[in-house]
Design a protein that fits this description.
heterodimer; A: 364 residues; alpha/beta; Rossmann fold; eight-stranded mixed β-sheet; 14 helices; globular; B: Ubiquitin-like (UB roll); two-stranded antiparallel ribbon
Chain lengths: 364, 91
């Protein structure tokens, strides 16, 4: 059968799938695979560089349900690589997950996107992951990745690790009970300050695109049931050096005495290694997370802040530059407060300073 | 024997930007010790203590994890590629 005939047949089989014609022509996906994508429920943790490429690719591919969780807001220096965002989103002070949801609505309105503005932590990750077929890593830190790793093993849901810096990237598919998990490969994260971050060493857009596109392809294989095609190796590359490797990690599960997948000791999910205060590496900022509770009153807090700055807010978040101290001791901070009470305080890497500002202007 | 050690981006601040370092060695341990001897700060990035690598760094010889071979005592020969692959967190 000629390709054009096959395409017509595919469209007639289900008119709602016509937009995926070029994708369904790839035989391992076809109509059946496309229907599986439509039925799939995917959790995306983080919607920055990797997350926006993942969300863009998978929504265009027709993944039916995406839950996108991100704790951050959009800044001008994100636009170089975070492909779903634009300058208007910054002017509108949109949280990343909300901006992504709005963009995807214009790309593919058949995709149901749940946007969650929250910090993923050991208290809430299970509720977001429990009904999903796949978990995707769009994060920028190891604490959250090890948390995803724990919940993946506990709930027996596969996840796909991706990470990048400058021109280098890593990726791996973790299938509980079948492949090694992330802690079989890297049992611990490097100590703070040991390795550079994207904020100190930089990151190039093409690097992000390659890692996230690789993750998206592996996601499509998993979600369409093409298990034999799924990567079993650690994908490593350096685009600047033109170097690509598929590293053999197949025996890591039997060799590593892994606390997570061998002993089912979920150290991150139990909160043993979690924290309510997180220094945002390389950003000179601290995040303060709050236990679940009611929404904060932005009107009230803005009124308090007008004596020290000019707060602006919408229904998602409040921002205010705050000057503390006098003369040579004067320090400038920027408070970003979200509706769930979580805050990012720029201008310090010290938890105590951040907590003091929070207590002073937000209350705790 | 001439062994090429590939240096990943996160460690290039230690190697003054070098992405590849050539050393003479017969085992992975010898190769890494030569590397640490050449560059201040490399040892603490690779080793938790003498004879034990940090658990956030993996070493591969021609794409094979040395943990599946003979660990640090894995023999290497002329032309082998040794890759240092650290955990990276960006994204």
């Amino acid at each position: 059968m000629a390709l054009s005939d096959l395409a017509q047949e595919l469209e007639q089989a289900d008119p709602s799938l016509a937009r995926y014609n070029r994708q369904m022509l790839w035989a391992p996906i076809g109509v059946e695979g496309q229907k599986k994508l439509k039925a799939a429920r995917v959790l995306m943790v983080g919607c920055g560089a990797l997350g926006t490429v993942l969300a863009n690719t998978l929504s265009r591919a027709g993944v039916g349900h995406l839950t996108i969780i991100d704790r951050d807001f959009i800044e001008l220096n994100n636009l170089q690589r975070q492909v779903l965002f634009d300058q208007q989103d910054i002017k509108d002070q949109l949280p990343k997950s909300v901006a992504a949801q709005r963009k995807i609505a214009g790309i593919n309105s058949d995709v149901h996107v749940e946007a969650v503005v929250a910090d993923v932590n050991h208290n809430n990750i299970e509720q977001y992951a429990k009904d999903k077929h796949l978990l995707l890593d769009g994060t920028d830190n190891f604490e959250t990745r090890f948390l995803i790793n724990d919940v993946s093993i506990k709930l027996n849901i596969p996840w796909i690790y991706g990470a990048c810096i400058s021109a280098m990237g890593l990726g791996m598919v973790i299938r509980p009970g079948i492949t090694p998990c992330l802690r079989c490969i890297f049992e611990t994260s490097p100590p703070a300050g040991m390795n550079p971050t994207c904020d100190t060493a930089g990151v190039l857009g093409p690097t992000v695109n390659v890692v996230a596109s690789w993750q998206a392809m592996e996601a499509m294989k998993l979600l369409t049931g093409n298990i034999d095609a799924v990567s079993t190796r650690l994908f490593s590359f350096d685009l600047w050096d033109n170097r690509f490797q598929q590293l053999n990690v197949s025996r890591a599960r039997e060799i590593a005495d892994c606390p997570a997948c061998k002993h089912h000791n979920y150290e991150y999910l139990s909160g043993k290694f979690g924290s309510s205060t997180t220094a945002l590496c390389g950003r000179n900022a601290v995040q303060i997370s709050q236990p679940p509770g009611g929404k904060v009153d932005f009107d009230h807090i803005a009124a308090n802040l007008r004596s020290v700055g000019t707060p602006t807010f919408n229904k998602f978040m409040l921002k205010c530059a705050i000057g503390e101290g006098q003369g040579e001791r004067r320090k400038e901070y920027e408070l970003t407060l979200f509706a769930d009470g979580r805050a990012i305080i720029k201008g310090t890497h010290e938890a105590a300073v951040a907590k003091a500002i929070y207590a002073k202007y937000v209350g705790s | 024997m001439a062994i090429k050690i590939r240096i990943p981006t996160p460690l290039r601040a230690v190697t003054n930007g070098a992405d590849m370092v050539e050393v003479q060695a017969g085992t992975v341990d010898e190769a890494l010790k030569h590397l640490c001897g050449q560059f201040t700060g490399m040892e603490k990035r690779l080793y938790k203590q003498p004879g034990e690598l940090n658990r956030f760094v993996n070493i591969y010889v021609n794409d094979e994890d040395i943990r599946f071979l003979n660990n640090l005592q894995t023999p290497i020969k002329d032309g082998d590629d040794v890759s240092v692959v650290p955990a990276i967190a960006g994204g």
